[in-house]
Amino acid sequence: MVSRLLRACGALRALRRPPAAPLRPPGPARALAAAGIPSDEEQATGLERKVLQAMEKGQDPYNILQPKRYAGTKEDPNLVPSISSKRIVGCICEEDNSCVIWFWLHKGEPQRCPSCGAHYKLVPHHLPH
Question: What distances in angstroms separate CA 70 from CA 28, 57, 64, 76, 92, one per listed residue?
Fold first, then answer.
């Protein structure tokens, strides 16, 4: 009996109460709902967006990609980018070698690795930001 009375009171209150406002305001639906999940290019901002745009143009602003292989001769040395006038370079002289030969590379003429004789040349590199 009490339960019937409470149900009736609840139904009467519901009839007197104005309808609740919708949870989402009326208007256009989100753009992503129709298109799906955004790609990295659509979602990227700031420095990440600049890097992705440079990669689309074929540039490598932060040396992310593997460097181009050169012959390593005096006429065609391995190019080493640097923002200063010198840089330390590590050369693995043989493919299965377990040690790295480190030496300083200075701006100017190509220099040889003291162990294997491969040539390296320092080239200026400007940071994109």
Answer: 56, 23, 18, 6, 15
